[in-house]
Amino acid sequence: QVQLVESGGGVVQAGGSLRLSCVVSGGTFRYYTMAWFRQAPGKEREFVASINWNGITRYADSVKGRFTIFRDNAKNTVYLQMNSLKPEDTAVYYCAVREAGSSTYGNWGQGTQVTVSS
Questions:
Q1: Distance CA 1, CA 45 (A)
Q2: CA–CA separation, 84 vs 108, rounded Å?
């Protein structure tokens, strides 16, 4: 069974930085596509960034140039470095796994709150 535990959320002023971490247990991490999603109050969950087994990354237009996703396969961990944070980045951030051969993200973490004050 795949389990994900996020950490690193908190309160930061606009323009500041945070780094989120997601540790994955179970399965074969190095073959997973990992992603970060977020959900703001009253809004639907949205895609933020992903990284596949080969290190290829994708980003939502709203975070390009400010956020960086990267992974450490030796630690079964994926990270989201968030710079130049804006109040509109305030949300619960979720880590998710898409296993090899699957078209959907089937395992999710519990989420970590990020609050950006103006």
A1: 24
A2: 26
